[in-house]
Design a protein that fits this description.
Elements (H helix, E strand, L loop, with lengths): L9 H11 L9 E3 L11 H14 L4 E5 L9 H13 L7 E3 L4 H13 L3 E4 L3 H7 L17 H13 L8 E4 L14 E5 L13 E3 L1 H12 L3 E5 L6 H11 L8 E5 L2 E3 L6 H9 L14 H7 L3 H11 L6 E3 L1 H15 L2 E2 L1 E2 L2 E6 L7 E7 L9 E7 L1 E5 L3 E2 L9 E2 L3 E4 L4 E9 L5 E9 L18 E2 L2 E2 L4 E8 L25 E8 L11 E4 L3 E5 L8 E7 L27 H10 L6 H15 L4 H4 L10 H16 L6 H11 L4 H8 L3
Parallel strand pairs: 1-2, 2-3, 8-9, 10-11, 12-27, 14-22, 18-19, 20-23, 25-29
Antiparallel strand pairs: 4-5, 5-6, 6-7, 13-26, 14-17, 15-16, 17-24, 20-21, 21-22, 25-26, 27-28, 28-29
Helix pairs in contact: 7-8, 11-12, 13-14, 13-16, 14-16, 16-18, 17-18
EC number: 6.1.1.18
Subcellular location: Cytoplasm
Subunit structure: Monomer.
Length: 672
């Protein structure tokens, strides 16, 4: 047993009770059982953390077992990625195992169930079986094949194994109870025919076991003491136990399934199927795109294993599903990087600053602290010269008293350097600022210890010396979805909530100390956020990903004070893009004359739409052809207004031209 001051979660309480009731500590064994049909995402980190965390707490082994029973969706690529992710998080597994290791044993046990009269071969279509299954309030109906003889079932099952039948011709079902209140107990499928190549067993098998038949039996073979699953498997527990009842040896340990609440995150998709859709449709650049909630995506974005593990610990272990605000995950990475990331200076949107009283040709190498949170981080040298870059947003010609950055006639400090005062600007013919001219006070060098250097000013700006600055590509990422629960809307596809501004590529300038920065290294760009070197970076080509800002820019605004004055409720005016979507929904059901009238209405509304509002609709589902027609009509108007064609527009038009709907094709042809 384990004694510590921290209160036990309910899973630890279960284990402690089992130990108190006689279970030997050396019998404890856990497992993490991913299906290799996609990359692991942030939701999996909770399951990983629970199983491996219990392994660490009780000094018990943890197996990494791949539930690879569906060759149609599983690949070695996913196996390799999962192993890399679990190891990167800092966990070590005892045995690497596969459900496919047990195919023969599972088949042999299935034969035993047939011989006991507890399994039979059904030859109906899946549609008919679904109708016979009943509903939660209505019992199911027995299959006409339910009472086949044992001999016939054995013969058919063996011939299924030998590949005599096509997919869908037969299945093997457990014979339990078609009237059972738990629908999962109504003669569940144990085997189906799949003539697919398996990533490990090749073409040795053409029948594959179902998850419910495989899962508990695999736990039993491995002698897993506690089979920990997310809550959606709670109704499966009864079936898990029924299958074990058929094969367990009373002298061996029997696994116990228990369930915990899965990790749901706001503004995030947790379905591997939907994440695969994002990859296959080119919405993202791959499973490791830094906008993806996959572990590989988070790693590439600059997240640390420590931050993710800390996040999982803060979420805790619960019995009920809830949604965790993604801002907690972002807080955890900020907290970690604040302590560990070196501080450097970078300018994203540069404007030239000339210090007119600084000697031409002079340069200084000033001392800058690497990380005030880490005394051992030391200092570095940064170059200072007459001409610098600062952020364009850090200057205004005129500003009120609440503006603490650079303006004409006021002083600010340059980080790690001098106090300057704005004096003049140089503009082009269109009034755009080309240069800011200022003067510096040479006695105010930061850290010099002089009285002048200690003079207080309200604003401090970051900067880089133009002469010494390095060009860098910065990929500024934002949340991939604009809705807190993008896949929870029954009447809308999750793709409709994509954030068109989830990626912005910037040419920035960074201080020269970053010249030798290595892939994966993390930094704080002072006043801007945390960034890391992307995998695409190479010698002579610096590429940084924005991990997270210094503060939560998505934080909900505080509710305004309630006024005592009577409120007049007004109906908010619908946005033009929303009206266009509504008109498109029924477009294909209208007679031709009505279509022309609606088209004219869409064209008129399109005058009020900007490209940023329209672009997310380029990913409208193929089946919503009316909406796609409305998008094409609107796009035609925007192009005529001068919107420049880009890759997203080209993709939309190309896809529309390949559609089966003649109206959509015609509209697309009109905007080629």
């Amino acid at each position: 047993m384990v004694n510590d001051n921290k209160s036990l979660n309910f899973l630890e309480q279960i284990i402690e009770e089992d130990l108190a009731n006689g279970l030997s500590n050396n019998k404890l064994r856990f497992r993490f059982p991913p299906e290799p049909n996609g990359y692991l995402h942030i939701g999996h980190t909770k399951a990983i953390g629970i199983s491996f965390g219990l392994g660490e707490k009780y000094n018990a082994p943890v197996n990494l077992r791949f539930d690879d029973t569906n060759p149609a969706k599983e690949e070695q690529e996913y196996v390799d990625a999962i192993k890399k992710d679990v190891a990167w998080l800092g966990y070590t597994w005892d045995k690497e195992l596969f459900s496919s290791d047990y195919f023969q044993q599972l088949y042999d046990w299935a034969i035993i169930l047939i011989k006991k009269g507890k399994a039979y071969v059904d030859s109906q279509s899946s549609e008919v079986m679904a109708e016979q299954k009943g509903t939660p309030t209505q019992p199911g109906v027995d299959s006409p094949y339910r009472n086949r003889s044992i001999e016939e079932n054995l013969d058919l099952f063996e011939r299924m194994k030998q590949g005599e039948f096509e997919e869908g011709a037969h299945i093997l079902r457990a014979k339990i109870d078609m009237k059972h209140p738990n629908m999962l107990m109504r003669d569940p499928i144990m085997y189906r025919i799949l003539k697919k190549h398996h990533h490990r067993t090749g073409n040795d098998w053409c029948i594959y076991p179902m998850y419910d038949w495989t899962h508990g039996e695999s736990d039993y073979i491995e002698q897993i003491s506690h089979s920990l699953c997310s809550l959606e498997f709670k109704p499966h527990r009864e079936l898990y136990d029924w299958f074990l009842d058929q094969i367990v040896d009373v002298n061996k340990l029997r696994p116990k399934q228990r369930e915990f609440a899965r990790l749901n995150l706001s503004y995030t998709i947790m379905s591997k199927r939907k994440l695969l859709q994002l990859v296959e449709q080119g919405i993202v650049y791959g499973w490791d795109d830094p906008r993806m909630p996959t572990i590989s995506g988070l790693r590439r974005r600059g997240y640390t294993p420590k931050a993710i593990r800390h996040f999982v610990e803060r979420v805790g272990v619960a019995k009920r599903d809830n949604v965790i605000d993604v801002s907690l995950l972002e807080f955890c990475i900020r907290e970690d990087l604040n302590k560990t990331a070196p501080r450097v200076m970078a300018v994203m949107d540069p404007v030239k600053l000339v210090i007119t009283n600084y000697p031409e040709g002079k340069e200084e190498w000033l001392e800058a602290e690497n990380n005030p949170e880490d005394e051992s981080a030391g200092y570095r040298k940064i170059p200072f010269s007459r001409e610098l870059y600062i952020e364009r947003d850090d200057f205004k010609e005129e500003a009120n008293s609440k503006y603490f950055r650079l303006t004409l006639g006021k002083e600010v400090r340059l980080k790690n350097a001098y106090i300057i005062k704005g004096e003049d600007v140089v503009k082009d013919a269109h009034g755009n600022i080309l240069e800011i001219h200022c003067v510096y006070d040479k006695d105010t060098l930061s850290g010099s210890g002089t009285e002048a250097s200690l003079r207080k000013v309200k604003g401090t700006l970051h900067w880089v010396s133009i002469q010494h600055a390095l060009k860098a590509e910065v990929r500024e990422y934002d949340r991939l979805f604009m809705d807190e629960a993008p896949d929870s809307h029954q009447d809308k596809e999750f793709m409709e909530f994509l954030n068109p501004k989830s990626l912005r590529v910037i040419e920035a300038f960074v201080e020269p100390s970053l010249k030798e920065a290595k892939v994966g290294e993390r930094f704080q760009f002072q006043r801007l956020g945390y960034f890391n070197v992307d995998d695409d970076a190479s010698e002579g080509k610096l590429i940084f990903n924005k991990t997270v800002g210094l503060r939560d820019t998505w934080a909900k605004q505080k509710p305004k004070e309630v006024s005592n004055k009577p409120q007049v409720k007004t109906q908010p005016k619908r946005k033009a893009i929303d009206v266009i979507q509504q008109l498109g929904k029924k477009y294909t059901n209208l007679p031709e004359a009505k279509q022309q009238k609606v088209k004219a209405e869409i064209q008129e509304l399109a005058e009020q739409v900007n490209y940023e509002e329209l672009e997310p609709l380029f990913n409208t589902a193929v089946k919503k052809v009316g909406t796609r027609i409305a998008v094409a009509i609107t796009l035609d108007v925007l192009l005529k207004k001068g919107v420049e064609r880009n890759d997203e527009i080209h993709k939309f038009i190309t896809k529309a031209l390949e559609d089966k709907n003649d109206i959509l094709v015609a509209e697309a042809q009109g905007i080629i």
